[in-house]
Write a structure and sequence with these properties.
The chain is of the alpha/beta class. It has three domains: about 45 residues, no CATH class; about 170 residues, D-Maltodextrin-Binding Protein, domain 2; about 120 residues, D-Maltodextrin-Binding Protein, domain 2 (3-Layer(aba) Sandwich). Strands 1, 2, 3, 4, 5, 6, 7, 8, 9 and 10 form a ten-stranded mixed beta sheet that branches. β1, α3 and β2 form a beta-alpha-beta unit. α1 runs antiparallel to α2. The longest helix is centred in the N-terminal third of the chain and has 22 residues. It is globular, with a radius of gyration of 21 Å. It binds D-malate (MLT).
């Protein structure tokens, strides 16, 4: 795309944004055109980034882990960038629809996404013809945080041990239903691992994100799901769902009463997920630096850290969360998931 085409595209997007404001329609068209022409052309001529709002694509429905983390981080990034970071939910196919969309977006830094161990890890092992390469089709901006995986059940599900879980799964009158957020999502692969270790073969119910899946669980419409702590901490605290096990050696300070997989003698059930911010490949280096610096500003902010930690997020040390660390994480995860899923 040429520079001129980019300016025209920015003007169109700015006009679309102004049209959402409550200004009478005739004045709106005039105002939108004049304001956007002047501001975008001026900013572009100056090489200023960002000259307008940045879209952060969320690959799952609202109410899940990615949404929760993105909301916290986007707010602070907006302050640092001096422009709104607007969340756009692009759901479907376990997060891969969103990643494909971002891969194809204009490489100008105005479209970024939150990806995780599913979209930029496990998905590449699960889809034979994934439309994107998690390593080479994106510009890594930086890691946000990592979080343990947890298994939660409907609140009246009685199992407190692996044996009991297996025993209840065998009741022919009440076959178990597991919820997940689509093939390739963290909730899908985490439960694949859990089911394979326990020899479970449940019915499955796919949702567009763990937000709606947890809602179904709290209404007793499904029996269990597995996901990042962040998706479920408030629901467990408020008693809407019951925590069964954390796939970790350590208990989480966010839910200290929940036993670990080691305590429940399921040592092989270990899984940590992570989230990071990605832009399409080949965005201008100065733009990538600006986004990384806004992400760092957000992650250095004590209030942001507190909010993420309160949901079970674990923050990386400052030197281990930049673009190189994210690129290395994605490479590692892609090969890790190929091996894990081959063994199941
Ligand atoms: C979500 O945000 O809904 C979850 O993180 C999706 C997933 O299972 O990966």
């Amino acid at each position: 795309m040429t520079r001129l085409q980019r300016v025209f595209r920015q003007i169109r997007e700015c006009e679309a944004f102004v049209r959402t404001l409550s200004i009478p329609s005739a004045a709106r068209v005039l105002f939108a055109t004049a304001f956007c022409l002047a501001s975008v052309a001026f900013a572009d001529a100056q090489g200023v980034f960002p000259a307008r709002p940045v879209t952060m694509v969320i690959p799952f429905a609202a109410g899940g882990a990615v949404d929760a983390v993105a909301k916290i981080v986007a707010q602070k990034m907006s302050q640092d960038l001096g422009q709104q970071v607007i969340l756009e939910y692009v759901v479907g196919s376990g997060g891969t629809t969103a990643a494909t969309r971002v891969k194809r977006a204009t490489a100008d830094g105005y479209t970024i996404m939150v990806g995780h161990a599913g979209t930029h890890g496990a998905a590449s092992a699960l889809y034979k013809s994934l439309a994107y390469d998690p390593v080479s089709d994106f510009t890594p901006i930086g890691l946000i945080d990592s979080t343990s995986v947890i298994v939660v059940t409907r609140r009246d599900f009685p199992a407190t041990s692996a044996e009991e879980f297996v025993q209840f799964s065998k009741d022919p009158a009440k076959p178990l239903t597991m919820a997940h957020a689509g093939v390739g999502s963290v909730s899908y692969v985490a439960c694949q691992m859990f089911n394979s270790l326990l020899g479970l073969d449940p019915h499955v119910a796919a949702f567009q994100g763990v937000g709606p899946a947890v809602a179904a669980l709290s209404q007793g419409k499904v029996d269990y799901l597995c996901d990042q702590l962040v998706s479920v901490v408030p629901h467990v605290r408020e008693g809407r769902v019951r925590a069964f096990v954390i796939a970790s050696e350590r208990r989480s300070p966010a839910l200290p009463s929940v036993p670990t997989s080691v305590e429940l003698k399921m040592d092989r059930f270990m899984m940590t997920s992570w989230m990071g911010i990605f832009a399409p490949k080949d965005i201008p280096p100065a733009v990538a630096e600006k986004l990384t610096s806004a992400l760092n500003a957000a992650l250095d902010d004590p209030d942001t850290r507190k909010q993420l930690e309160n949901l079970g997020g674990e923050l990386y040390p400052a030197g281990q969360r930049g673009p190189d660390a994210l690129r290395a994480t994605v490479k590692l995860e892609v090969s890790k998931w190929v091996n894990i899923l081959k063994q199941q």
